[in-house]
Amino acid sequence: MELSVGTVLDGKVTGITKFGAFVALPGGRSGLVHISEIAYSYVSDVSEHLHEGQEVRVKVIGIDENGRINLSVKKAADPPRGGAPAERPRERQAEAPEASFEDKLKRFMHESDSRMSGVRQYTEKKGGRRGNRRNNYD
To answer: pTM here?
Structure first.
């Protein structure tokens, strides 16, 4: 069976991790449902929403060049009444619909480096290092 982005399938949860759940798909393939793709509400613990052996309907939201399959439970179902929570504008711009994990990681690292350089500049303006300072009375 050939999988493509947008396909909705039934699968079985085979493993739970702190960052998501692995789902066995038809044809002997498997994919990952990231914690952010489990429910429209905030998910702090995957096991509160899914458990091993559970049958789930998932949507293929990405397949990277290494053949890893990214899945979504929430996009395979209708949004709750009132629609999905509004995304912040920065997130909407930053996330390409088919961005791979590596692309997302590169973007995160770039944004993180930019923020840290701003913090360093602010700290240097304020007189150097912040936090635990040793006194010179030893």
So the answer is: 0.57
